[in-house]
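ugh ok so i messed up the first submission bc i forgot one of the chains. this is the corrected input, ALL of the components this time, i swear. 561 residues overall. if the numbers dont match what u have on ur side tell me asap before i send this to the collaborators (the ones from the other lab, u know who)
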Amino acid sequence: MKTIVFAEHLNGKFTKSSLEAVSYASAWSVSTGGTCIAVTYGIIDASVLGTAGANEVWKLDALSTADGEQITKLMLAAQKESGATAIVLSQDLIGKSVAPRLSVRLKAGLVSGASFLPTGNIVKKNVFSGKAIAHVTVNSEISIVTVLPNSYGVNASGAACPVTAFSAEVGTARVRVKEVRVEESESIPLPEADKVVSAGRGMKGPENWGMIEELAKELGAATACSRPVSDIGWRPHHEHVGQTGIAIRPNLYIAVGISGAIQHLAGVNGSKVIVVINKDPEAAFFKAADYGIIGDAFEVVPQLIAAAKAFNATK
Amino acid sequence: MKILVCVSKAPDTTSKIAFTNNNSSFDEAGVNFIVNPYDEWYALVRALELKEAQGGNVTVLSVGGIDYEQIIRKALAIGADDAVRIDAPEADALSVSTHIANYAKDKGFDLILCGKETINYNGSVVPGMVAELLDMPLVALAAKLDVANGVATCEREVTGGMEVLEVNLPAVISAAKGMAEQRIPNMRGIMAARTKALEVVSFENASATTSVNNYEMPPAKSACKFVDPANAAELITLLHQEAKVI
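and heres the new structure output, hopefully the right one now
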């Protein structure tokens, strides 16, 4: 089965979620005895997409920025040219804008946010905010899958691949980017963070966040918080993880002073390793945790900072 | 300004998630359904704020059976002016989007607002499909929305910052946290909702391209391993040597 996958880049680098999508598309095509074509645009050395698994890259050079409709037209042209019957994108902002449009235009079944490779025409995806997995059957000739970020790793074992110039009529953007406000560059963006240190009302006040930030810094982690903490203004809204904030899937999630309400768990239950620090032994979060410390954050966290510093010194 | 807000129902966030019929359907026994929070808290409330500031009309639309009526009445109680229920099964995102687009295509809506995703299917697909079917631009996951002179200005979170986007109306916009604050309906709203218009529209054929075969529960977590709080440093060793995450 021939697979095409869209890859986006930012500041001269392909995004992590795009590389994950390329590795997913590559593994899918290999499992069906086909090949994988990565599609991108603009000025960038795209041969590196071969390392993530692409057999070749088709690149539309004459486009520097693109909105969802333009990328849709690019992918439609690439599908037509290649005859691909499988289309992959990341379930990121671009995938959410482009994949539904492709599904309409190609009358192709779309499974969004998949975290496993398809088996035949069945694709598994998380539903109920990670509390269950649905096996979705695609009943169309062409299948479209978007890959949940941080769920399917990048397989970087390939080699650089050939890049072919591709031309397509993509029209003009109807969504205009007026400004991008870059926020404090030191901090790690939460949705992409590999490690996250998160804290809740147990911290007693915003003035006590210094130790959370310090622990995060020592571990190379992003900081996050629970909903009550962002609602009362101790921390910014964009740090709120949970059912109604953002959902994250880091390798390591450390929750300090968060009781673990079901709405909070819904946003973090995809994390690979969960550590819970809470002085209440009955905190619901311990049931979802891999490691737990029943103790006062104000005594435990400083010990962890010291231990992390000592650990970093040995690296 | 004519605004259409698409609302879906979802199980209350504290619901027990279980399945019946050989794990092929969601077990609704004892489950309390609510308006999908992204549709209600952010999309609907922002639509009402825009109407209150600029005048206009807010219509809520749902695709689904009679069990949707209490969801729609809740949206009306919060302040929507009128409502439409398309009496069709929620077969898949494409069929639901087709129903929405078929209804909306000749009604002259300036703005179609949806939540960024439902909390049960987590698809984030319907807004984009509706936009494509109606040939409208889409801003996905907007955390802020203002409208002036026929132009919507949105902000959304992107890697490393906030992006400010502009789009001419009509447009489809999906709402993320930050766009508005939850509103609790008051008694006057609840009373008024009982008499507001709720149009039930029979559906045209809309084909589905996907179907859920069955569900499974994620693998159970193994028991939590506790570390002595007096020797918290042990955790760092475990995370390095055992869990291998640092």
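quick check: The radius of gyration of chain B is 21 Å. that seems consistent at least. The mean pLDDT of chain B is 95.
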